[in-house]
């Protein structure tokens, strides 16, 4: 039996502490949300945590309940040294592909940090085109507190954008599935076709013959 969400491992600070011992003081964690969705933007966040913050319960956003994510989101924004987000809309995703759009959103997020960080740690990837020392860390959102914080900020920011899209067009249920390929979402696509919020380059095989 899987462990409850509350008992999943916390993200640690071993990487950040090692970088501080090497002389880096403003370490930005970077992550994105919405990479695998059929609709809505991809959102990246960059967060610089204080070494003296009192944040408790930092985990990969996927290991948290919606309530816990919102609570931690508010605490992160209140206690961090700086934070920023970057967004790439469906049109950009279709034009340059989701991987490049995710990297662009990450670059925008890092570029929005004031003052800039002196080191960047990223979930899985390195970010091309930034002139700051960086390290990509596989499963970084489960290992590094700063990346976990970024994953929470990106997820909550994107979820709120999807709720706004639902308010503009409630046919698809974006407020429930946030653009992922759930049964409810696929049924709505078969009935209504793609909206302006959908990524035209994301076509589930089961819908190829049904949607223009």
How would you portray this structure in words?
The chain is α/β, with parallel strands linked by helices and 212 residues long. The protein has a single domain (5-160), classed as 2-Layer Sandwich (Nucleotidyltransferase, domain 5). The protein is 40% helix and 14% strand. The protein contains eight helices and five strands, in the order H-E-E-H-E-H-H-E-E-H-H-H-H. It has helices spanning 14-21, 66-79, 90-96, 98-111, 140-143, 145-168, 174-177, 183-192; strands at residues 27-33, 42-48, 82-88, 119-123, 134-137. Strands 3-2-1-4-5 form a five-stranded mixed sheet. The protein starts with 13 loop residues before the first helix and ends in a 20-residue tail after the last helix. 44% of the residues are buried. The mean pLDDT is 93.
By secondary-structure content and strand pairing, the structural class works out as alpha/beta
CATH top-level class: Alpha Beta
CATH fold topology: Nucleotidyltransferase, domain 5
The major β-sheet equals: 5 strands, mixed
CATH 4th-level superfamily: Ribonuclease H-like superfamily/Ribonuclease H
Give the helices and strands as they follow along the chain: HEEHEHHEEHHHH
Contiguous low-pLDDT stretches (5 residues minimum) are none
Q: Number of folding domains?
A: 1
Radius of gyration: 18 Å
Estimate the strand proportion.
Answer: 5-15%
Annotated CATH architecture: 2-Layer Sandwich
| Fraction of helical residues | 40-55%
| Spatial order of strands in the largest sheet | 3-2-1-4-5
Broad shape: globular
Average pLDDT confidence is 93
- The beta-strand count equals 5
Number of helices: 8
Determine the N-to-C terminus distance: 43 Å
